[in-house]
Amino acid sequence: MRGKCVVKIGGSVLKDSSSLVRIDSIVRHFEDPVIVVSAFKGITDALYDLYECGECRLNGLKDLINMHLRMIKEEFSYSGDFQISQDSIKERDSYVSYGEKISAYVIARFLTQNGLKSIPVYADSSGIMINDSSADSEIDIQASSLFLRKIEDIMDMKQIPIVTGFFGSDKFGKTRVLGRNSSDYSAVAVAAILGIDRVVLVKDVPGIYLNITDSKSLARRIDYERALELCEAGARVVHPKALKLARERNISLIITSGESIESGTVISD
What we know:
Carbamate kinase; 40% helix
């Protein structure tokens, strides 16, 4: 697919080491992508549970990291390491952000070893700014100019940025999450920051169904308002905040699956 676009790979697609091969295939389908990733399936829930554990918090995180690193060690005999900041395990938001950080790290290393030079980009240290610390916090598009420059520099070096969804940084430099299942919203916000008008959301479904009980009702093209109606009525394929920001910024969304990247549902005016 030609032209710049943001491609978000959801946690339902990120299941195990076999998922990395599929991601490689997906990324090669695009000419000039910015990749936004969720945590691997089930990892965010595990991190929330481990955080409450207190004394086992650090060792639990180390176990999760080693589990992820084995995916690339087995494939490439990779001997790299993933660093943990001691301060980052003290606050819940920074602790649970490790799901996406590990995901971005592993995917970037896998793609690089396969000839697609990639670099992990962690939202909280790369200039994606959160406007407050409430449950309804949003990404401040205008204040995230540092992120724009960072991504431009990476792409100028012909590298693929693998950006973490789900969180960013507040004005005090603290990691803040955007709420559960918010990586769709992160991807649209990344597109808005970068001035990109197309976002591809790769999920475990081929698109949006007009009737969730009818497999033949897959929508090929719908507008933002209809998509919002369907999602709020139960077809929660896309996060409502992602749809609202896409409508506001006139960003087209393409909902597709890793199995059929050429097809799916287009959401636009």
